Amino acid sequence: MEENNSDSRHPDSHVPTVSEYVFLENLSIVGIFYVVLSVLGVFFNSSVLLVLFKSTRMRHTPKYWLVLMVSITLWFQAVVTNPQMVVIWFGATTRAACKMWVAAEAYNTYACVGIACWCSLLLSFDYLFCVASHRYRQIYRDSVMMCLLFFCIFSLIVTLAVLSFVFGSNKTPMDYIKCHFGFTNEIVVFVLLVYTVYLPLIGSVILNLLGVVFLHRGFEWNLNVSLNVQGYSSNKSFPPLDHSLLLIILILCYVPATVMHHLVLNGVVFSKENKALVHLSATTTVLRDNAGCMVPLVWYCFCDMRDALKQLSCCKRKASPSDSAFQESSEFRLYDCYPYCA
């Protein structure tokens, strides 16, 4: 009896039936959302990539190496993995489609989320040390950020590959979705979710707060705040708006989906008896897989990205007096006084 109870709690012990997947009743609506949001994600991320590749200065700035990595990751999600999932939902049931589904699900759940969250942490790390250390800003910034970026991406990919090979499992729950990817060990899933979501996002919050404190209270504590040393007074320097918005979007898009994943691990079944939970799960999954249509807009909160976009031939136009007057008077320009990306 004890063995049967323990099996029923294990996420891989129960193979769902078609009737239990109530979200299939609205699958066409979910598919339309994926298609529309993926098109927007492709357009916005392509514009960011075009701006970064056209700007020589940005290509040599560590901050925009991280922006480039996030944009490539989200662009790939919008171009490849999300359309592949939609194709599976609408009837592709071949063995090759099953393998593509497994790859797409693993990429969206762990790889894409992990890269975006860890790049957010590195952005916050770079911001803090640019504020606190003049030596880091002038000498070590490029090499340190390159090494950290390579280490984070490489370790994430290797970890996912090894754990997928050792603990991964494929199942065939029903006719509509021919395969499902999961890990046979609950502890492995929990560690992955902490490693890819919770740890980097919590670290980003802490580092951003420390950077703001150093920027505004550095002289009171006799800290060497490098930006103020270079002549930027604390009342004219603001925390980077794009960092804060990026962190908020990642928390809103990734944390709810991760919490729902925890519920699955604890044995919660998304059946017709739990319709509200099923719709909530579908909503969080759509947000997680389509954060790429919102994140690119964050980068245009910084003046460098907006100015580089205006230099593209497709965006050039004659400036009118009202435009320049608005630029100088807009409160939004206060954030442009922050010299972080220089």
From TrEMBL:
Organism domain of life: Eukaryota
Subcellular location: Cell membrane
GO CC terms of this entry: plasma membrane
Residue span(s) of domain G-protein coupled receptors family 1 profile: 44-299
Gene3D superfamilies named among the record's database cross-references: Rhodopsin 7-helix transmembrane proteins
Membrane topology: Multi-pass membrane protein
Name of the protein in question: G-protein coupled receptors family 1 profile domain-containing protein
